[in-house]
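U., I forgot to send this yesterday:
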Amino acid sequence: MKLRTTLALLLLATGCSLSQAAQPDKPTLVVGYQSKTINTVTAGTLLRSLGYLERRLPGYRITWQDYDTGAPITAQMIAGKIDIGSMGDYPLLINASRSGGSTQMVAITGYNLRGGLNMVVVPPDSTVKTLADLEGAKVSASVGSAGHGTLVQALEKAGVTGVEVVNHQPPVGASALQSGAVQAYAQFVAWPGLLAFQGQGRLIYDGSALDVPTFHGTVVRKAYAQDRPDVVDAFLKAQIEATRYLHENPLKAAELVAKETGLPAEVVYLYNGRNGIATFDTTLKPRLRAAHEHDVPYLKQISADFGSVDLAAFYDDSYLRKAYGQAYDSDTASTKNPAAITGTDPVCGTAVSDPALASEVWIEGAADTQPAASPTCLLRQIAAATGKVRAAYVPDAATGTRWFADKAVWVRDGDGFLPFTTQDGAAAHLKARPGATEITYADALKASGDGR
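Result:
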């Protein structure tokens, strides 16, 4: 309650700032964003940090309002108090449902084609290994969030019906998990990665197992966009510019977001770095829209209070087409990650080219990360490293979800080592490959370093 009260007071102070009072006739733009939801940084945290929007709108008073989830942004937009906001796929559906046609989705911030931005974690010492083990358990989730939507679909697919969902804001839910008030935590980027990195959570479900795209997007008040299309154009051009900066400077971008949010840079880079879990691309892709249509029935499962959703009316790419230029259609058709891991593996001596294998290691004090051609080559690099490893990243051998090497479940298969985000994933591989064996991360490092 104290946290919510403090947030409300801060927002009130922002809304009644001295600078606004001093310039009552200056046109305004109010932007709602989620600083720690780092799949939205190109329309939020990173965009604000770079100052691109302010440079494009020097005559405007721009107010940034920060929230933990998308629900309050929707409420403020419907009340006419936020003009442009960014949020996840399920909150976007709720936005469309609640707004009665008064809002429109105009761009994407980032996406994952398999759903890997949403995950379920449990305490590190929990006996829970799969979703099936959660029967009868309490699971913390932000009701109506992208993480909640994934949980609903995943439980249905697994045939688990006895789970009680406890509605929490992400930081409150994290505390509930640590205190034992809930047995699991279902959330969106970057909370699961944060808990895993801090040793406070263990991943049991990777949203990529659903193989349903998940994404975040930019939404505007329709009346504001019609009245001030130049402002929407400026915002989208600034978002495109921030996206380009992230692609060209992934490590610097991660460090900027970390500085602004207090999140560890290693966690931000897991999602927003080269071959990150999130692919940043503003275009409104048909495959993402199809996923949104797939999600609509689950909205009713979350709450019968949500009305119908007219996605045809909600989607409007006309503003983005104008801001983007001639490459819009070709880039819309592409799902290639513009921020790829490239270069030459310094230990294995081979080119890094296959995104299904490409890995990275971040050595303390290094100017940039170091590419690895495969998870096995990454292990060899770490074993040979003379400096402290800040973080090492590997793609799940089945889904491609990028994860921390030291948090992965490792399998030795022949001469190679394969990482998996969850025990479920590793078990499926072991079942299909009887000769393969599970191995600890420490033993995998030793074996790779010994060349065995």
